[in-house]
């Protein structure tokens, strides 16, 4: 299993992926379901956060072994109104696209390949709009700061409140998918394979 040298990211200035207002909310989903504060449209969900009451679809459950229940989040969520623009944090190339159709899955999904000092890594953009999928065929070049995708509505994003799930991966993925939540048994190796997206997002919380 390969890993990314975090020091490479410290030398690089990245573009903002979502242009958040200064007063966005930061969720603590370790203590219960998501409740957006009244009057608030933008929020952030944390990396490496245990979320015991969020993932209720069959794909996340394991009644025989609690340690295999998938409920630890290993991306960063950025919530906003449907069709909120999403920008590329650096120059990249669309690696793959897919509609992940399961209940509470990603819906329309893109994976973009990036390089930093010759080291390839990958970013999954999940819960997108159908337009995001149609406008980004594999092989398409995307420029740093370019608006290339949009947050999907509930009917196209897997059934979620509109938001972006951004996840980094140190290895070339076999399919257009990454486990956005993992089980306690696998957490150590998963955090190595899927490093903190704040490496490119900056200190959002």
What does this structure look like?
There is one protein chain. 37% of the residues are buried. The protein starts with 5 loop residues before the first helix and ends with a helix. The strands form 3 sheets. Strands 1-2-5-12-9-8-7-10 form an 8-stranded mixed sheet. A 3-stranded antiparallel sheet has the order 3-4-13, with no helix packed on it. Helix content is 10%, strand content 31%. With 205 residues, the protein is mainly beta. The radius of gyration is 16 Å and the shape is globular. It contains 4 helices and 13 strands.
Helix fraction? Answer: 10-25%
The 3D shape can be described as: globular
Span of the ends, CA to CA: 28 Å
Taking strands numbered 1, 2, ... along the chain, how are they ordered across the largest sheet?
1-2-5-12-9-8-7-10
> How many E strands?
13
- DSSP helical segment count: 4
Integer-rounded radius of gyration: 16 Å
Series of secondary-structure elements, N-terminal to C-terminal: HEEEEEEEEEHEEEEHH
Major sheet: 8 strands, mixed
Query: What average pLDDT do the residues reach?
Result: 92
Strand content: 25-35%
Report the uncertain regions: none
Strand pairing plus helix content: what structural class? mainly beta
């Amino acid at each position: 299993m390969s890993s990314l040298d975090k020091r490479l990211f410290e030398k690089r200035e990245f573009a903002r992926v979502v242009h958040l207002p200064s007063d966005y909310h930061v969720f603590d989903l370790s203590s219960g379901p998501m409740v957006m504060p009244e009057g608030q449209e933008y929020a952030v969900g944390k990396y490496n956060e245990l979320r015991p009451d969020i993932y209720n679809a069959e794909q996340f459950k394991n009644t025989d072994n609690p340690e295999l229940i998938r409920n630890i989040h290993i991306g960063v969520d950025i919530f906003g109104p449907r069709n909120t623009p999403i920008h590329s944090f650096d120059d990249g190339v669309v690696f793959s696209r897919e509609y992940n159709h399961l209940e509470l899955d990603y819906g329309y999904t893109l994976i973009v390949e990036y390089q930093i000092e010759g080291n390839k890594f990958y970013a999954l953009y999940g819960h997108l709009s159908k337009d995001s999928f149609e406008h980004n065929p594999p092989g398409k070049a995307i420029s740093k700061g370019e608006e290339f995708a949009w947050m999907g509505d509930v009917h196209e994003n897997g059934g979620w409140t509109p938001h972006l799930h951004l996840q980094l991966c140190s290895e070339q993925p076999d399919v257009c998918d990454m486990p956005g939540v993992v089980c306690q048994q696998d957490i150590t190796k998963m955090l190595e394979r899927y490093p903190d997206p704040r490496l490119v997002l900056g200190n959002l919380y």
